[in-house]
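Q: For a teaching session next week I want to show students how multiple molecules come together into a single three-dimensional assembly. I've collected the sequence lines for a complex. Could you give me the predicted C-alpha cells for the whole thing so I can convert them for display?
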Amino acid sequence: MSVNQQAHTGPPYGQPQPGYHGYQQPAYGGQPLPGVPQSQYGVYNGPMPGYQQPGPPQGYFPSLGFPAKGSPVSLNSDTSTLAPNFIGSLRAPPTSGAPPPASGASLTSGHVAYSPFGHGDVQNGIPASAAPMQRTPASQPFLPGSAPAPVSQTSTLQQYGPPPASVQQLSNHMAGMTIGSPAASAPPPAGLGYGPSTSVPPVSGSFSATGSGLYTPYTASQGPPPTSVSQGLPLAQPPFPGQPVSTQRPPTQVPGFAPPPSSTGVGPSSYPPTTGAPRPPTMPGPPLPGQTVAGPPMPQPNHVSSPPPPSTMSGPHPGPPMSGLHGPPPPTHPPQPGYQMQQNGSFGQVRGPQPNYGGAYPGTPNYGSPPGPPPPPKRLDPDSIPSPIQVIEDDRSNRGSEPFVTGVRGQVPPLVTTNFLVKDQGNASPRYIRCTSYNIPCTSDMAKQSQVPLAAVIKPLATLPPEETLPYLVDHGESGPVRCNRCKAYMCPFMQFIEGGRRFQCCFCSCVTEVPPHYFQHLDHTGKRVDFYDRPELSLGSYEFLATVDYCKNNKFPSPPAFIFMIDVSYNAVKSGLVRLICEELKSLLNYLPREGNMEESAIRVGFVTYNKVLHFYNVKSSLAQPQMMVVSDVADMFVPLLDGFLVNVNESRTVIASLLDQIPEMFADTRETETVFAPVIQAGLEALKAAECAGKLFIFHTSLPIAEAPGKLKNRDDKKLINTDKEKTLFQPQTSFYNNLAKDCVAQGCCVDLFLFPNQYLDVATLGVVTYQTGGSIYKYAYFQLETDQDRFLNDLRRDVQKEVGFDAVMRVRTSTGIRATDFFGAFYMSNTTDVEMAGLDCDKTITVEFKHDDKLSEDSGALLQCALLYTSCAGQRRLRIHNLSLNCCTQLADLYRNCETDTLINYLAKYAYRGVLSSPVKTVRDALINQCAQILACYRKNCASPSSAGQLILPECMKLLPVYLNCVLKSDVLQPAPEVTTDDRAYIRQLVTSMDVAETNVFFYPRLLPLTKADVDSDSLPPAIRNSEERLSKGDIYLLENGLNIFVWVGVNVQQGLIQNLFGVSSFGQISSALSTLPVLENPFSKKVRSIINMLQMQRSRYMKLIIVKQEDKLEMLFKHFLVEDKSLSGGASYVDFLCHMHKEIRQLLS
Ligand SMILES: [Zn+2]
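A: Of course. Below is the structure for the complete assembly, covering every listed component.
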C-alpha cells in the first residue's frame, strides 16, 4: 500500500533551482539534522506583549576577577577603559508581563507535521481549526470516488462565487464641482506663520517603529465558520472555467461631491468658515494642493510647499489659484446642503475650515490666516466625499463575520482592517499574499491603458492568528519535493494529473512531467487524485517541504544559526545607561531565543562583542571560570581573535555569560571614548559566522556617526538645504559604496544585521542602514534616548526582535503562469540576478512586494497563477521550502479589473515605488509621477467603465474610491514632503521601514487610526468607533487616541471634564497634565483601565512598540500631532483631502479632454 514510501536513489526531483546556486562558501553547514522536530515556530504567534522577565537564571553570581587587560589571551590590550570594578549585586529583573510558557504550548502553535503518506495518526495531528477541511482519515487510494471529500467536490464550478453583483455605475456624481471655474488669486501675503514650529522638540521619538499585523485582534469566538459558498470547490482543477467574479464589494454610489450621498449622509458640514461667515452656496474653483485657501503660506524654511503651485497642478485652472474664492460663484449648481455653516462642536463655536485655523483658540499657532475676516471658502463638504472610516466600517460589517475561504480563484479578500479568519482551500491566505487586483487584464495593452500596477505584497513567514493552521510540513524523504521538469515549479493544487495519474502537466509552463513512482496515485472519476485531501501540496495554497541536501550550500545541511550581540560602549552609550540596560536585559532575554516548537532549548548559539574605536571579543566558553576579553584594535583588517568559546550554547555557558553581562557596564563605566567604528563591527560578526560555518543575526546597538579611522568611516553630510533640490536624492543614498559591498558579503554568508540606533544627532541612517536593509534585517531608532521614557519601548522592541520567527539564508522566487512574469521587487533584500530575492534573514514581519508585467496574452479561462517559493533555514538549522500559491482571474473587460482591485495594496505598492524613486529622482518628479499615474488609473475607469455623465462629475470606481485620500497621504508623508522638524535621518529611516511594510502597516501608517477615547464603552472589549483624521472632527471636550504603527498620541482637549482628567492622569486639572509622560498612570477606575487596555491591545497588534506621546490641546507638541491629521492641509504644504480630490478631478478631466 505504501506506494509512496519507496525511497529514491536519485535526486531527480530535488534539483535546486538555478537561482539557488552560488553558495560557494567553503564548508557551509554541519551535520544533517534528521531528527529535528518538525514542530517549530516557537515564537510564531508573536512575542507576547509582555512577557515577564523571569528572575535571572539560577547559578550565576556577580563575578569577580574579570580578566581584562592582563588576560593571557588578550591580543591587543589597548583599551584604556577597562575598570576592574564589578557589579555588586544582581539587579532586579525588569518588570513586564508574563513569561512565555516554557513549552510554548499556548502561545506557540506547533508546526504541524504532515506526513505525505496520509495515515490516520497524521490526520489526528491536524488542528481543530482545520476541521472543515476534513481530510479523510486514511487515504484509500484505489477506490476512485471513495475519498470522502467532506467539502463535497462538486463538479459544478459555477455554483461557487456569487453572481456578479449588479454593475451599477459607481458614479460619484460630483455635480457641484466646477473645477474649471474662475479661480483664485494672489498668493497670500506672508502670514502670521507658524512660529511655534521651531520650538517643537526634535521628533526624537516620533519615528519609533513599524507596526504590523492585524488591525483588530482575532477573537477566538469566531469558531467554525459557517459553510461558505466556496466550499467544495475542486481545488486541483486548473482550468477554472470563468466563474462569475465574486464581487464582494459591489460597486456602490461613491458619495458624490455635490448631491450628498445617502451613504455618508448629508449631515452637518464640518466646514464652517473660519470666522463664521456663511459660506456661499456653491463651490467655485477649489484651491490646489499646496495652496492655502485664504491664508498665507506658512514660512517653512525647508519646504517649497507654498505657492506657486507646481505647474502640473495648475493646468486648466483658469486664473490665479485663489480667485474663485472671491469671485462670484458659478451659477451652475444649486446650493448644497452640506455647505451650511456648521458647528460640530469641535473647537467651540469658532471653528475654522482648514487651513484657516487661525484664532480658533488662543495661543494656537495661526495657520496662516490673513488678518481680518477671511473670505468664506467655498469647498466641498468633507462629509460628502469618500470616507476611509466608512469604507472600513462597511467592510467590517459585511465581511467580518464569515471566514474567508480561499477556494475560489480571484476572490478579493476582506480589507486588512477587517477582522476575519482564513480557511485555506487551495490559495494562499491574504496574510501571506495580497494583490493590487485579483482580476488582471488579459493583454498588456489593457494593462497599460488602465495603468493599474499588477503587484503582489508577499509576507512569506507571516504570523497567523492562533485559530488558523500553520502550513504543514511535507517530507518527501530523500527525493525531495516533486517539481516540474522544465520550470521547476513545485507541486501545487493547480498541477493537472493526466494519463491515469502517471504524469502531470505544469500549470505554469504546460510542460508534462512523469510522476515519480513513489508519488504515483490513482485519479477519481473527476480526474483528481484520490489522495487529494491527504496531501497539502495538492489541496492547500500554502505548505512547506523539507528540503533535501541538494538545497543546501555546498550540499551540506546547515548548522543552527547564531546570534551575536554587539554593543557600542562609547561615552554616550554608557552615560545614557544604555549599556547597562542592554546587559541586564540580555541576561533574561537569552532564555527566550527562538526554538523549534518541540525543542527543549534553542539551538541558536550566542556571542558577544563590545566596541568603540576598537573591538572587544569575549570568550564565554562554559569551562571558563570567568569570561575573557580580547581586544582587536587593528580595525582596518578585521578578524576574529578566537574561535573556540566565542559562540556558545546559552545553557552551557550560562554562568560565564551572566558574569560577562554583569561586568561590561562596569568595565566601561568611566570611558571617555566618544568615537566609534561601525563597518568593522559588521565585518567582525560576519567573520565569526564564517568561521563557525553558520548563518545568523547580528544585533548591533549603536549610538553615533562612525567617525573613527576605519573602513566605512563616515562624515556628517547632512544638509537640509538640499530638500526640494535636484540633490535631495543624495540624502537617501549611502555616502559610500563600502556598505553595499559589505552587505553582499553578508548575504552570501547568511549574516543578517539588525540595527538599534540611539542617536543624539545625525548618524546617517541612509548609510548605516544599507547592510541592514540588504540583509533583510530590521532597523530601530530611538533618537535622544532617555532611560526613563524610552526603555520600555526599546526593551519591548528588542524582546520581540530576538524572539520572532526568522528564517536564515533565504532565497525567494516567484513563478508565474505563462503570460505574466515578475519584473520588479521592493523590500529589504539583495538580488544578484533578476529573479531571485536573497535575504540573509527573513522574519515574520517582512514583506516583499513584487510587480508583474505581461509577456504574453492571458486567457480568461485559465487565469493567472503565482507560486512563491521561499527556501530558508529554520532557527534549528533545518532547511525548508515554504510554498504559497495564488490563482487570479483574467479579464477582457476593464470593468472587471476595476471591480477587483484592492486600494490598500495598491497604496502599499505605490508608496514603495515612490520611496525607491527618491533614490534616483527629485522628489517632486516622484510626486508628480504618482499623481499622474493615479489620475490615469481613474481617467481610464471614467472613460471605459463609467456610465456617461457630465464632465463636472468625479466618478470613482467603488474599489478605488479611497485612492485619492490615501494617495494624498503618501504624497504628504515625510519622505516625499517632510514636515519642518523631520530630520534627514528620520526620512531615511521611514523610507527603509515602509519598504518592508505589509498592507496593514502601510494602511495605518499613511492613514492613522483616530479613536475618541471618551466615547469608549468601558464595559465592552470593543474599540470606540474611529473618526476621520481631521482637526475639525475633534472636540475640545474629548480625549482622542491616534496611532500610526510607530506612535500613539493621546490628545486632550482643553475643555475635558475634570473628572476624566483625574481618572486618566491622576491630576486635578488640564494644566497639571504632564506632556512628558511616556505611559499612562495605572489608576483603578474604569476609564483608566479601558484606555490602558486599548493601548495595550494596539501595542500587541503592531510589530514595534509604539511611543506614547501625550498632547495637550494648544500645547506646542500639538504641532506634531496635527501632522498626523492627514485629511487636513499639512504644515509642509501637503494638500487637504478636499483640495487634493479637487486636484485629482482636474487632472482626470485633463486626461479625458
Ligand atoms: Zn513548469
